[in-house]
Design brief:
Elements: E1 4-9, H1 26-34, E2 39-42, H2 47-57, E3 63-65, E4 70-74, E5 96-101, E6 106-111, H3 116-128, E7 133-135, H4 141-148, H5 152-159, E8 165-169, H6 173-185, E9 189-192, E10 197-200, H7 205-219, E11 224-230, H8 236-241, E12 244-249, H9 257-260, E13 266-271, H10 272-284
Parallel strand pairs: 1-2, 1-11, 2-3, 11-12, 12-13
Antiparallel strand pairs: 3-4, 4-6, 5-6, 7-8, 8-10, 9-10
Length: 288
């Protein structure tokens, strides 16, 4: 029986290179668009940042923001109201369903993350206890642009957060461990991305991917096979959830140790979008 693919992908360092370009992946992006394969962005970026790249990619599929904090489904995408869907495993009592209006699209949003003000309060508590941490909420747009290399308009989008606080730690490994322990005691968690640590609730990319995979399977005429592409530790839960997990190389041609240690992940032949392109072309040739 034929299968239908769904591709879940991180952005920074995966589909996007260090210059925030997906140009090296244009060939495979064109082919999955022609094959009507859903491309679901699953990123630590904010909703507005992802909408910006969805526009550039001409992408109209659901997406996941802020490390699994929010799942956004264009209204009517699956042909039924997501809030009425009976999941095989309920997303959890902490989940909030709401309607969100984007620039040109209305979404059904599944909110899995802790509201941003609570994360800012937690970071302030850490600082009062002597921890040297600095989050996006403490930085100006210009400072975020300087730390990330983003243009000012995109840095402004990156600052408008809902479920995830990227932050920097100044201090030793022992101080980092103390911070991580204090965060856990507050009922929150820390994950590591490409440039920053990320303070979140119990959400992660894997939980969001499972929700969307269930929705895709409910509407597909063929069996669904899920593909995940990522390259950083905060992609781990996503890669553990999909049927075929692909890790892309770092710019130095190495792979992230946290992902390598898992075993069983497919190694893309190339950094970021170069490896992404080769892996997806291989998928389309039936090599997976």
């Amino acid at each position: 029986m034929p299968v239908s693919y769904v591709v879940f992908t991180d952005l920074d360092g995966t589909l996007l290179d260090d210059a925030y370009s997906f140009a090296p992946a244009l060939q495979s992006l064109s082919q999955i668009r022609e094959a009507s394969i859903p491309l679901v962005i699953c990123s630590s970026k904010t909703r507005k940042e992802i909408e910006y790249y969805r526009g550039k990619l001409e992408n109209h599929d659901p997406f996941v923001s802020e490390n699994g904090g929010g799942v956004f489904v264009p209204t009517g995408y699956f042909g039924f109201r997501v809030v009425d869907f009976e999941f095989a495993e309920e997303p959890g009592a902490d989940v909030v369903h709401q309607t969100v209006f984007g620039a040109d699209v209305e979404y059904e949003a599944i909110c899995l993350g802790v509201p941003y003000p609570k994360l800012r309060d937690a970071l302030a508590t850490l600082r009062r206890n002597g921890c040297r941490v600095r989050g996006f909420g403490d930085m100006s747009v210009q400072e975020i642009a300087g730390e990330t290399g983003l243009p000012l308009d995109q840095a402004r989008m990156a600052k408008e957060r809902d479920f995830d606080e990227p932050f920097l730690i100044e201090g030793s490994k022992n101080e980092r461990e103390q911070i991580f322990r204090a965060v856990r005691e507050m009922g929150l968690q820390v994950s590591r991305g490409r440039r920053f640590y990320h303070l979140t609730g119990s959400n992660d990319k894997g939980r969001a991917v499972k929700i969307l995979s269930d929705l895709f399977r409910a509407t597909a005429g063929n069996p669904i096979v899920t593909i995940g592409l990522g390259g950083d530790p905060n992609d781990l839960s996503m890669l553990q959830t999909v049927d075929h997990a692909i890790m892309v190389q770092k710019p130095d041609s190495g792979y992230d140790p946290a992902l390598l240690s898992q075993g069983g992940f497919i190694k893309a032949d190339g950094p970021g979008p170069v490896g992404w392109n080769k892996a997806i072309l291989g998928l389309l040739r039936g090599e997976m």
